[in-house]
Amino acid sequence: MFLEIKELELHPIDFKEEFQPGTIDLGEDVRQRTPLATDGRAELVEEHHGMHLVIQDIRLRGKLATRLELSCARCLDAVTQDVKRQFELLYRPLGTDAGKDELSVTDAEAEIGYYRGEGLLLEDVLREQVLLAVPLKIICRDDCKGLCPHCGKNLNLEQCSCATPHEDPRWEALKEIRSKLEH
Ligand SMILES: [Zn+2]
Ligand SMILES: [Zn+2]
Predict the structure, then answer these.
(1) Secondary structure element (H or E) that encloses residue 132, with its range
(2) How remote is the CA of residue 152 from the centroid of ligand 2, in Å?
(3) pLDDT tens-digit readout, 2-14
């Protein structure tokens, strides 16, 4: 859904949409399991700079909800994650260089992005918002044992035979002290 400046000049745009999995490209690591529901409002905010320069910002308020599938950072198994997020965003024309301090108080609290050309694609906004809501690292359960670094077996499911017994680090420390005393 394209939020066009020309239309926003006439009136705010209220949106209520559902995006099926696959419509929004979330990259390879994030899979969308249910339709992404979103609703909100886009409106034009005009910044007046001096007598003649008017900068047209797009203010976007709304919320989204969907269910994602991610991979456990240790064992790569699928982990389901529900995402619900509210957003309040301000998009300025790309290349506008005024800083945050020049914006009104309410807008200064919004997240700021940039749009290029005639307007803003809602799908692009949603992609960014979904990815922001995704944790950097997710694990399937607290005690996930992960994959064996040697043979790649999922150690939650089976014990492999290549597990090398490693020395207790406390012994390492003692050995170090002893070697220092001996020299
Ligand atoms: Zn795991
Ligand atoms: Zn192994």
Answers:
(1) helix 122-133
(2) 6
(3) 999 999 999 999 9
